[in-house]
Design brief:
Length: 330
C-alpha cells in the first residue's frame, strides 16, 4: 500500500510538471502569436503609408505635366502648385509640397565638363565665373565666413567635383582626405546628395546649416540655371550671388516681381539693378523663367505608421519622369 501511495504521489507530481510545462508553452505561444499579429499589423500600416506616398507622387507627376502644358514656357509661384497640400484620410492623411529645384544653387553646376583639370590657372572661363558666384554666396552666410575659409571651400569643392587629382591653390584632393583620422577619398565626380558637402575640405558646422538652405544637388547634371520667377525672398542670397547684386536689391526685385512672373529672361535682365551689375554673356545665360526639375516632399500617416519621401522629377520633352527617391527625409 505504501509503495502504491508513493507511486501515486510521483504520478501526481509528473502530471503537475506536465501541466506547468504546457502552461508555460501555451503562454509563450500566445505571446509570440500576439507579437506576430502586431508585427503583421505594423507591416500592413507601414505599407499603406508607403502607398499613400506613392499615390501623392503619381498625383504630383500628373500635376507637373498639367502645369507644363498650361504654362506656355513660364513657371512662376502659384498657390495651385507651390502651396502645401493636405489631404485627410480615414486613419491617417497625406501632406505634400512641390518645390522648384531651379530656385536653388546647384552645386553640381560647379563641375566643368569642358575642362579635365582643376588647376586654378587653367579653369575654363565658364567654371571660373560659376565659382565666383559660389564665393559670393558664401559671403552671405551667417555667421560671417573669413575670406580665407571661403576661398578654401570654393577651391576644395571644385577639386571634389572635377575628374582629376590636380589640387587647386587652396583646394584638396585625396592626399588631404586620406590624412584624416577617419580617411576617405574625394568623389572626383558629381555629388549624389547634398549631404556630401559635409565632407568637403574647409566646410564648418557653424555655418553649414545656413548654406544648406540655399544649395541643392541635381544628380549627374551640371545645369546652372535660376528661375527668377520662383526664387523667394528667403532665398534672395542665391539671386544676389548669381546676379552680382546686393541682398537689398535682390529682395526688392523679388518683392516687385509681377504676379504672373517675368515673361522671359530678357525682362529680368532689363531691370535697372541688373543692368547696373554689368553681367557677362555667360552670367546672363544663368537666368530663366522656366523649370525642368521639381522636388516633391511628402509625409503620410496611417494609424500608428508614418512615412516620409522626397521625389525628384525631371521634365524633358514635355514628359515628366522620376529621377531620384529618398526615404525618411523631412
Amino acid at each position: 500500500m505504501k509503495l502504491a501511495s508513493k507511486q501515486q504521489g510521483v504520478a501526481l507530481i509528473m502530471v503537475l510538471l506536465i501541466v506547468a510545462i504546457v502552461s508555460v508553452l501555451a503562454t509563450e505561444m500566445g505571446a509570440r502569436l500576439q507579437l506576430q499579429v502586431k508585427r503583421a499589423s505594423n507591416i500592413k500600416e507601414n505599407n499603406q503609408a508607403y502607398w499613400y506616398a506613392v499615390g501623392a507622387e503619381q498625383f504630383a507627376k500628373k500635376s507637373i505635366s498639367k502645369l507644363i502644358e498650361n504654362s506656355k514656357g513660364v513657371i512662376h509661384l502659384d498657390p495651385l502648385w507651390s502651396d502645401e497640400f493636405v489631404f485627410p484620410i480615414e486613419g491617417g492623411g497625406i501632406e505634400a509640397q512641390l518645390f522648384d529645384m531651379q530656385a536653388c544653387f546647384n552645386l553640381n553646376g560647379l563641375k566643368d565638363k569642358a575642362s579635365t583639370t582643376s588647376n586654378a590657372f587653367t579653369r575654363s572661363p565658364e567654371l571660373s565665373e560659376r565659382l565666383s558666384a559660389f564665393y559670393r554666396l558664401l559671403e552671405q552666410v551667417e555667421p560671417e565666413i573669413p575670406s580665407f575659409e571661403r576661398e578654401t571651400v570654393r577651391d576644395s569643392l571644385a577639386d571634389w567635383l572635377d575628374s582629376d587629382d590636380n589640387m587647386s591653390q587652396l583646394g584638396a584632393e585625396d592626399s588631404t582626405y586620406e590624412s584624416l583620422q577617419f580617411p576617405y577619398m574625394a568623389a572626383n565626380n558629381y555629388m549624389a546628395d547634398i549631404s556630401e558637402l559635409r565632407l568637403v575640405n574647409g566646410v564648418q558646422q557653424a555655418w553649414l546649416k545656413t548654406l544648406m538652405q540655399w544649395v541643392c544637388v541635381l544628380p549627374a547634371e551640371n545645369i546652372f540655371l535660376l528661375n527668377v520667377n520662383t526664387v523667394t525672398e528667403e532665398n534672395a542670397a542665391i539671386l544676389a550671388s548669381m546676379a552680382n547684386l546686393s541682398i537689398s536689391d535682390a529682395k526688392s526685385i523679388i518683392a516687385s516681381r509681377p504676379p504672373d512672373g517675368f515673361q522671359n529672361a530678357a525682362d529680368f535682365l532689363a531691370l535697372t539693378q541688373v543692368t547696373a551689375a554689368n553681367l557677362t554673356d555667360e552670367q546672363k545665360a544663368w537666368f530663366t523663367v522656366t523649370t525642368d526639375y521639381f522636388m516633391l516632399s511628402s509625409k503620410t500617416s496611417y494609424n500608428n505608421a508614418s512615412f516620409a519621401m522626397q521625389t525628384l522629377f525631371k521634365v524633358e520633352n514635355n514628359q515628366v519622369s522620376v529621377k531620384k527617391r529618398q526615404f525618411g527625409i523631412q
